[in-house]
Specification:
CATH architecture: 3-Layer(aba) Sandwich
Order of helices and strands: HEEEHEEEEH
Oligomer: single chain
Largest sheet: 7 strands, antiparallel
Distance between the termini: 38 Å
Shape: globular
Structural class: alpha+beta
CATH superfamily: Mog1/PsbP, alpha/beta/alpha sandwich
Strand content: 35-45%
CATH topology: Protein Transport Mog1p, Chain A
Number of helices: 3
Radius of gyration: 15 Å
CATH class: Alpha Beta
Helix content: 10-25%
Number of domains: 1
């Protein structure tokens, strides 16, 4: 049941990473991205709305990334806002400009609800070489801190081309 709920949360959160294509511009995922998959208890899952995604068998938390190359060119603020749009009762705890992969990025932690369930989400959004990237970690709010170190390790090893 916990895994089912995690997949539901993942679907809602990742579906909020919207890309708007302009006429004549084709959006494709990035090629050549380097990363290390999160360690156990995270296991890879199929997700049509992300490049790669992992679900924790222990908590239902998820880690994922989405890339979008050659499509729209939103601002970092727009990317952040779109990624948080799935949360009702949104409360942005932190939102800072940082350097990530040699580029300016927005790093955000927010809480809110999805179908009345309290959730927490951490994001890093950035742009590099005509691609937009969103790295995310999320889950039920009371389980969020338990595996946040897995997301920190994932971010540290993530390299966009």
């Amino acid at each position: 049941m916990r895994n089912f709920f995690g997949v539901c949360i993942l679907s809602v959160l990742l579906a909020s990473c919207v890309s708007v294509n302009l006429p004549g511009r084709k959006s494709v995922p990035a090629k050549g991205v380097e990363f290390s998959a999160p360690s156990s208890p995270f296991k890879a899952i199929d997700s049509a709305s992300s490049d790669k995604a992992w679900l924790s068998g222990a908590t239902g938390n998820t880690i994922s990334f989405v890339s979008d190359c050659g499509g729209a060119d939103p601002s970092l603020q727009q990317m952040e806002t779109e990624s948080l749009a799935a949360l009702s009762n949104l409360d942005v705890k932190t939102s800072d400009s940082v350097m990530f992969n040699g580029r300016e990025a927005r790093q955000t932690v927010a809480t809110g609800t999805v179908d009345g369930i309290a959730v927490q989400l951490a994001l890093v959004v950035f742009k590099k070489n005509n691609c937009n990237y969103t790295l995310s970690y999320g889950g039920v709010q009371k389980q969020f801190a338990a595996e946040q170190n897995h997301f920190e390790q994932f971010k540290a090893q993530f390299k966009a081309p």
